[in-house]
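Cast an eye over this sequence plus tokens and explain the fold to me:
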Amino acid sequence: MNGKQILIWVGRIALLLLLFFVLFIIGTMAVSGMLPDIKSEPGLVPNNIGFLIFGITNMFLIIALILSSRWNGWKLALLLGAAYYGAVTFLTQIEAWYFMSNITFDQKLLPRLFVMGLPIAFVYIPLSVLILGKGKKMDSEKPTLSVIFPTKLWIWKLIVIAIVYIFLYWNSGYFIAWQNPDLRAFYGSPGDILPFWEHTAKTLNTDSGLLPFQAIRAMLWVLCAIPIILGSKVNVWWTAILVGLFFTVPQISGLILENPLMPIASVRHSHMIEGIASNFVFGMIIVWLFHRKHKSVQDLFGIEKKPERINKILQQ
């Protein structure tokens, strides 16, 4: 890369960062005057630095998702925009509504939060596609990964991914987030922590809709990952890392900032660690499970049958 190319990239990154902040601020106007009048504890870092980190990390994630795609033009802009909106806004806000509607959420606020995410997903991402030189219509390369397989296999994989998500969600939630007494009190369960199985039984008894709700969210996470997997021009490992970051960076980076909807700093920090532990791993598992057709459980884990292994040895 010569000096001219470096200057071009510096200019692109500066423009993309500026646009991210402008469009994010425009989005926040949707919730102006609607947030609860609660004094939030300070963020992990000072506000200005935190907002800068938030913008830079999200910008570089979007750049990586665009440049790693074999798609171009409106196909890339619309599919990536929809996936980003689903993962960053829709899935995040419906979970926040589920748990916090009786704590800091006003029922009138939720629709505004959905509007807040529109500028980044459907204005910033298309502009980024153009700025990064991916505005041409033709796809650049043949697909390296495929999510086209029989309906029965789809159903089997969706059931497996729902079970995996619930396992990760429940265990990281209990063994990481729920260990924080401030977090338990925030969600209405003050006092000493119950043992794991007792806590699980109590939750299933008092909130029978929680696990079905999270199973549906697991399948929606898959829907958000499919455009990344299907459009990827990098190998399966890099695709898995990208999807893991896609499920982690936008959701976690916001937790370093002050937030009147989650005003207690330790609660935000616990959710941050919980999200890094579960969302990143879950994103990678989705790619592993859905990046190609698997003929059997052995094929899924890359275990060859003995006759095939013997034939390979004999051919050497």
Q: What stands out?
A: The chain has one domain: 3-315.
